Amino acid sequence: MADPKGFLTVRRKEAGNRPLHERIHDFGEVEQTLNSEDRKLQASRCMDCGVPFCHWACPVINIIPEWNDLLHRGDYKRASELLHSTNNFPEFTGRVCPAPCEDACVLTIDKAPVTIRENEAAITEMAFNEAYIKPHLPQRRTGKSVAVIGSGPAGLACAQQLNAAGHLVTVFEKEDAAGGLLRYGIPDFKLNKKIIDRRLNILQAEGIEIQTGKEVGRNIDIRELVESFDAICLTIGAGQPRDLEVEGRHFDGIHFAMDFLRQQNKIVRGEEIEKKSLITAKGKNVVVLGGGDTGSDCAGTAIRQGARSVTQIEILPRPVEVAGKENPNWPFNPQKLKTSTSHEEGCERRWSLSTRRFIGDMQHVTGIELIGTEWQTNDKGQMQMKEIPGTEELLGADLILFAMGFLHPVQEGIISALDLNVNARKNIATNSKFATSHKKVFAAGDARNGASLVVTAIFSGREAAEAINSYLKIFSYSK
Fold first, then answer.
1. DSSP assignment of 214-250, as one string?
2. Under a CB-based contact definition with an 8 Å cutoff, are residues 188 and 29 in contact?
3. CB 468 within 8 A of CB 434
4. Which of 46, 56, 116, 263 is least surrounded by Cβ atoms within 10 Å, i.e. has the fewest?
5. Residue 478: which pLDDT band, with cuts at 50, 70 and 90?
């Protein structure tokens, strides 16, 4: 521990964000960076606790106190190596992770946790700048081949781990570029896509083959892949969005969030969208249904497109508002109001409202009818919603975006073709070894667990790779 009194002498200092009046006019990353000396001081605040709750709360089990100490000492190379020992892509999580580690940090008791997420990003950026992060080719090849279907964080983590074990890995991605929702779901103002390309170059140099524009189940037969490869890992995500079948659903101007976000990310990438297919918020009153991160991303994107107004609607009650980094449920994940940079840019937020119907004129949506809700706990401890009569209201809207989460992986295509077992929530059913009902097919990430965090997907991909590696060894011995 480099500075045992750092947490007493150094105040928490965040990198901060670009000025609001500047950032709303472009899609550049909002978050700024601290200089190296300030960053080392922030790392010195880590207490090296007897019980590192940050380590316990991290979905990839990052060894946080140790790499904070190395950062404070300026040893970026060893810090990066330790960081990568548990997390394949700290440059992603250092930008988009909600940082449950910080909520669990002992210093959260004093409302000033260590800047763990920012420290992680700083270590990784310095490691890239100094060329500490470079391709590592496996020492030997096993001759076994694995197909990974989907190139999101779970798929890429799984592919890298299997490749490191010496297997020949091919990643199949339906889009024109790899990255999954990292590429086409998260806005550039949170994650610049050059960050993804930089990592993909490393993975390909290590020997991983990435084929884009290949939608397995549509233009590639999954059964042929099962015959061609020794193992398959499905990391296809939970791509089925939650819909809202109420009166007026058919009106133009009502879209799923991912269609809206994906299109804007493609525009930022330099692609042209046909006018008839363009989803734009420019000059419109936008209503976003769903109060989570995806809804926030829609709000920030709509603001940058020049929306007249943006309102985010949540059916659940308003969470508890607490000061700063306070966590009333320490060290557990807090149920508190979270305000994103997009909310600060001009988004009105409303809670406890349910959608009754959509209103339209000449086949285009013009508004939404809402009603107030209250939530009560039943005898089983479950929350139940009840509409409040007399609270109906009309809200004008030219563009409505569904950001109400995802239900499960798309059932048509791969799942139906292989007749895979699914669980009650229609996620791909697996055993503890990530194996599906098909002996050569495994599943990881949101397709197995349901929609979750990037960091959780990375961990799932790593665990699946370990299980597949064990399977291939057994398979090899039996031959």
1. --BTTTB-HHHHHHHSSEEEE-----EEPP---BTTT
2. yes
3. yes
4. 56
5. very low
CATH number for the domain running over 145-239+407-478:
3.50.50.60
Answer whether 6-129 and 145-239+407-478 agree in fold.
no
The pLDDT tens digits for 86-97 are 999 999 999 999
- Cα(402)–Cα(298) distance, integer angstroms: 9
Q: Is 169 within 8 Å of 208 (Cβ atoms)? A: yes
> DSSP for 123-156?
HHHHHHHTT-S-----SS--S-EEEEE--SHHHH
The domain spans of the chain are 6-129, 145-239+407-478, 243-404
3-state helix, strand, coil in the chain (%, to 5): 35, 20, 45
- Whether pLDDT at 2 is above 80: no
pTM > 0.85: yes or no: yes
Query: In the predicted model, is pLDDT for residue 474 greater than 90?
Result: no
Contact 255, 400 (CB under 8 A): yes
